[in-house]
Backbone:
């Protein structure tokens, strides 16, 4: 079982998003934890979504087998953090 | 064919129409410096692989020299040539497949494992709807390149070409010799 303070996890996820998606001029403070990641907000695209799915498995040991559920998981950084805290194996 | 403008970029320098652009860095860092100091309005640059960054920066400097992007047009072709394909990015992508216990193919690297993506990036940036092509040659040949460019003008639509040699073997080993050519 992995226990991590939710605030720390949110910050970690923001740092991972910036790192894996090459968001060069974005800092963690610039990302609103409740803002949409796709469409508006950070304006991420479908390739970014695939990279986040790979990141979930590589870093947290979570295999997302059905990409269609990604829409709910990746709604915002907060929804990602909730999902990770409940499902991580690393 | 008439060459209207030209750009040369090596790991040490960038020259537009014979005039060097002052830079303080070299290699891939120099491309970032050129982006930040001369362009700086296209964050997608940071998602590109090295070959695309080279082609993007070179094309932007060329179009700045021209003073007109000729945006949203159907009569401009983007035609590039090299002999290393997308090998610089291919190696990076290969590294994400290498370890049996660390097999995590990267989608954002995968999409750049084709050299012609750079012609697409340039076309998207400028709204070009004409021909795009990327020739991977055994070795650099002026004769072959000249023939291919002349052939590009053989259709009834193409009036200008943004093209030339665009090769990137490593982050500190690349060459861009691009031209804006009119019929």
Residues:
């Amino acid at each position: 079982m992995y226990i991590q303070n939710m605030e720390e996890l949110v910050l970690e996820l923001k740092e991972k998003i910036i790192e894996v998606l090459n968001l060069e001029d974005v800092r963690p403070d610039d990302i609103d934890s409740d803002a949409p990641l796709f469409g508006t907000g950070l304006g991420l695209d479908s390739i970014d979504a695939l990279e986040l799915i790979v990141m979930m498995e590589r870093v947290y040991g979570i295999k997302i087998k059905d990409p269609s559920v990604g829409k709910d998981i990746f709604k915002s950084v907060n929804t990602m953090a909730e999902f990770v805290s409940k499902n991580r194996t690393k | 064919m008439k060459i209207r403008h030209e750009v040369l970029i090596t790991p040490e320098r960038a020259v537009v129409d014979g005039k060097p652009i002052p830079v303080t860095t070299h290699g891939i860092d120099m491309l970032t410096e050129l982006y930040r100091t001369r362009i700086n309005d296209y964050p997608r640059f940071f998602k590109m692989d090295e070959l695309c960054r080279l082609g993007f920066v070179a094309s932007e400097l060329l179009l700045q020299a021209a003073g007109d992007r000729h945006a949203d047009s159907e009569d401009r072709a983007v035609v590039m040539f090299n002999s290393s394909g997308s090998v610089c990015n291919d190696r990076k992508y290969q590294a994400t497949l290498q370890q049996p216990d660390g097999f995590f193919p990267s989608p954002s690297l995968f999409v750049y494992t084709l050299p012609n993506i750079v012609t697409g990036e340039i076309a998207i940036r400028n709204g070009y709807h004409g021909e795009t092509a990327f020739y991977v040659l055994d070795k650099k040949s002026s004769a072959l390149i000249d023939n291919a460019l002349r052939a590009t003008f053989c259709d009834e639509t193409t009036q200008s070409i943004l093209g030339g040699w665009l090769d990137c073997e490593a982050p500190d080993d690349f060459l861009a010799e691009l031209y804006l050519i009119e019929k």
In short: Chain B is about 35% helix and 25% strand. The radius of gyration of chain B is 16 Å.
